[in-house]
């Protein structure tokens, strides 16, 4: 993909990312870094979802600081945070809320559920029954909840971060493709590196204990969280507006379309990516560019985000699975073909330019 040419302002056909917004986003990442070691990519993905109004599905084994990370993000921007542990006996009313009879007035009053928050952590979402999953996903899509005969709008911003354990599948209900498609991103968490794990242990050893109610308890990483935000909701709104103004070239759009449509015609793919994949790729690329201080998207944004945007939106056919192929293998093949296509197009363009220059030189000589 040809690199966009910057204009005199430093960005191609657009304005550079505002310094105040870049400082705000860097401040949020730095604040999280004081509590959570590593997981830089996860922090970036959460910020991307927050800036674009999307939702995020995290896959990872327990103990990788998912709850701590989201709680720290909420305190960094002064957002409301709620966590729901999904279980088999959970009911939709446990998430959305319900009507309760007030015996003093003999009238029903609405008791809003934990979904009325800014950041909602849906822990192990695949452990709840499909009816409960659907109730949450409907709220994610429409950003409103109906309780009884009354409809309530959810707070703004509203972000759902759901988690799944990819190893333990007993007693779980797999999310169908139609519901997975509503998640803008699905990211797979990795274990920390040895250096990061050493830093985790050092920080944990220095936590000590805290005295309370005449006794003492061991301090945890949650006790390190401070209530002093590095920014406000207004800063977040300005960042969201800035992300929507990031320049996207026509060439970038063409390559997003090419990558998405290739998933529908690939011989190993039974179900290709929907148009939501292309929308999500461009939105996420804009947010990633803003986080990195750019006023425009670049090819690296497409390649870095494609696995998190596309993989949960495609399904391989039986033959590919029997051959031991995975979705990541197929996607890398698609991206590799896309890169080769770009190089061939660039060479053709270069050859045509040289031919025109040669013809012009011959005409001048005559």
What attributes characterize this protein structure?
13 helices; two-stranded antiparallel ribbon; Rossmann fold; alpha/beta; 13 strands; five-stranded parallel sheet; 16% strand; 366 residues; globular
Structure at a glance:
With 366 residues, the protein is of the alpha/beta class. The protein has 13 helices and 13 strands. It has a single domain (19-195, 222-357), classed as P-loop containing nucleotide triphosphate hydrolases (Rossmann fold, 3-Layer(aba) Sandwich), CATH 3.40.50.300.
What does this structure look like?
The protein is of the alpha/beta class and 366 residues long. It has a single domain, classed as 3-Layer(aba) Sandwich (Rossmann fold), CATH 3.40.50. The chain contains 13 helices and 13 strands. The chain has helices spanning 19-33, 40-52, 66-77, 92-96, 130-142, 177-180, 194-205, 233-244, 250-265, 275-291, 299-310, 318-322, 327-365, and strands spanning 56-59, 81-85, 97-102, 107-112, 119-123, 144-147, 150-153, 159-164, 185-188, 209-212, 215-218, 269-271, 315-316. The protein has a 5-stranded parallel beta sheet with strand order 2-5-8-1-9. Strand 6 (144-147) and strand 7 form a beta hairpin. Helix 2 (40-52) crosses helix 10 and helix 9 (250-265) crosses helix 10 (275-291). The radius of gyration is 24 Å and the shape is globular. The model is unreliable at 1-12 (pLDDT under 50).
């Amino acid at each position: 993909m040809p690199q966009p040419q910057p204009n005199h302002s430093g960005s191609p056909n657009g304005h550079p990312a505002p310094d105040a917004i870049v400082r705000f986003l860097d401040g949020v990442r730095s604040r999280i870094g004081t509590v959570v070691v590593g997981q830089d990519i996860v922090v970036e993905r959460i910020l991307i979802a927050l800036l674009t109004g999307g939702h995020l599905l995290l896959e990872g084994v327990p103990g990788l600081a998912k709850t701590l990370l989201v709680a720290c993000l909420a305190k960094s921007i002064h957002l409301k945070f709620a966590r729901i542990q999904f279980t088999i006996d959970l009911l939709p009313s446990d998430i959305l809320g319900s009507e309760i009879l007030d015996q003093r007035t003999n009238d029903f009053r609405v008791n809003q559920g934990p979904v009325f928050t800014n950041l909602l952590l849906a822990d192990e979402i695949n452990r709840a029954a499909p009816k409960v999953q659907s109730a949450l996903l409907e709220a994610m899509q429409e950003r409103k909840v109906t309780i009884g005969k009354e409809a309530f709008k959810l707070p703004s911003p509203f972000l759902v971060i759901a988690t799944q354990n990819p190893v333990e599948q007993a007693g779980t209900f797999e999310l169908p493709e139609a519901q997975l498609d509503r998640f803008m991103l699905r990211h797979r968490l990795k274990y920390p590196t040895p250096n990061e794990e050493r830093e985790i242990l050092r920080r944990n050893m220095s936590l000590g204990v805290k005295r309370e109610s005449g006794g003492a308890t061991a301090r945890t990483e949650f006790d390190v969280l401070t209530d002093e935000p590095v920014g406000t909701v207004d800063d977040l709104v300005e960042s969201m507006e800035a992300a929507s103004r990031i320049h996207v070239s026509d060439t970038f759009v063409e390559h997003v379309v090419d990558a998405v449509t290739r998933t529908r015609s690939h011989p190993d793919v039974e179900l290709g990516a929907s148009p939501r994949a292309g929308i999500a790729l461009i939105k996420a690329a804009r947010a990633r560019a803003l986080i990195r201080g750019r006023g425009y998207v670049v090819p690296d944004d497409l390649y870095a985000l494609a696995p998190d945007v596309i993989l949960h939106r495609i399904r391989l056919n039986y033959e590919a699975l029997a051959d031991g192929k995975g979705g990541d293998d197929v996607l890398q093949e698609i991206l590799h073909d896309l890169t080769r296509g770009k190089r061939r197009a660039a060479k053709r363009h270069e050859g045509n330019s040289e031919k025109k220059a040669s013809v012009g030189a011959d005409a001048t000589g005559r």
